[in-house]
Amino acid sequence: MRIIVLMKQVPDMEKVKFDREKGVIDRKSAGTEINPFDLNALEAAVQIKETRGAEVVAVCMGPPSAEVALKEAISRGADRGILLSDRKFGGSDVKATAYTLAAGIKAIGEYDLVFAGIQTVDGDTGQVGAEVAQFLDIPHIYFVEKIVEANEESVTVVTDIWDGVYVKKMKLPGLVTVTKDINSPRLPAFKDKMKSRKAVIPAWGMDELAEFLDETETGRKGSATMVKKIEVPKAVHRKGLLWRDNMDTALNEFMDILVDKKVIEVE
After folding, report:
1. Exposure string (b/e) for 74-86, b if CB count within 10 Å is 16 or more?
2. Cβ atoms 37, 178 nearer than 8 A
3. What single string gives the DSSP state of each residue in 216-266?
4. Is pLDDT at 20 greater than 80 in this prediction?
5. How confident is the model over 37-47, as pLDDT tens digits?
């Protein structure tokens, strides 16, 4: 069984700064880390590996420096990592990114299951997983919070969507995106972290993916959308009301607030 985990290196969102004039993220203003939801995806894959046996391959699209994220993935249980990196991939939107990731998966060869985080903390679109599945022509399940069973033929999962909890079974190969509720990602042991430093991370660009990739469909050329500006909303401060004298008036006003906020209904 082979499981592929899609990963992304993102800025530390607690420290990153925004250029309000240009409307973009200043990615140089903070360090980088693995997208938190992708760590949940990796942990889910490694747990399957430990219970029934599987090869876990981490795939990341990004600049050469992103190999650090793949080495960390190996320290957390992945068997190997592959970096998709080429200047021609730069400026990709979600569609072009998904197309390139799908090409990387095709280049790997046979696979059974693809794991991804539900979204990334820098883009927050939640679209890439489904689009990768579309380009691979495989089924997918979103919002997975529990893996019930996984084998070579199928995977059974629990999803929580809006007000409903569902048990779903999907034939493989297929793609699953997970939420943060699925598990608590393990911390790498010191020996595994030291061992992962020696890992060789192959970098695949246009030349390596030429069989599966059309240059006009990746990078800026292949992007159907473009982010023109990012607006950071102003901080919202909580407001309070205090009633001291007339409790009847206080209760009536309080009830009006609850009705207005649709907390309660009054017939």
Report:
1. bbbbbbbbbbbbb
2. yes
3. GGSTTTT-S-------PPPPPPP------S-HHHHHHHHHHHHHHTTSS--
4. no
5. 999 999 999 99
At 169, which amino acid appears?
K
In a domain, 191, yes or no: yes
Nearest to 44 by CA among 82, 98, 7: 7
Q: How many domains does the chain have?
A: 1
C-alpha atoms less than 13 angstroms from C-alpha of 239 in its C-beta half-sphere: 3
pLDDT in tens, 34-85: 999 999 999 999 999 999 999 999 999 999 999 999 999 999 999 999 999 9
- Give the integer Cα–Cα distance in Å for 174 and 113: 5
- Answer for the pair 82, 202: CB distance below 8 angstroms, yes or no: yes
**Residue 106 included in any domain:** yes
Are residues 116 and 5 in contact, defined by beta-carbon separation less than 8 angstroms? yes
In a domain, 184, yes or no: yes
- Judge if pTM exceeds 0.90: no
Choose between 121 and 100: higher pLDDT. Answer: 100
**How far, in Å, are 44, 179, 267 from residue 146 at the CA level?**
9, 9, 41
Which domain range does residue 72 map to? Answer: 2-217
- Here the CATH number for the domain that contains residue 168 is 3.40.50.620
Strand positions, DSSP E, 128-227:
140-150, 154-161, 164-171, 174-178, 203-204
* 233 is a domain residue: no
DSSP code for 152: S
pLDDT exceeds cutoff 60 at 12: yes
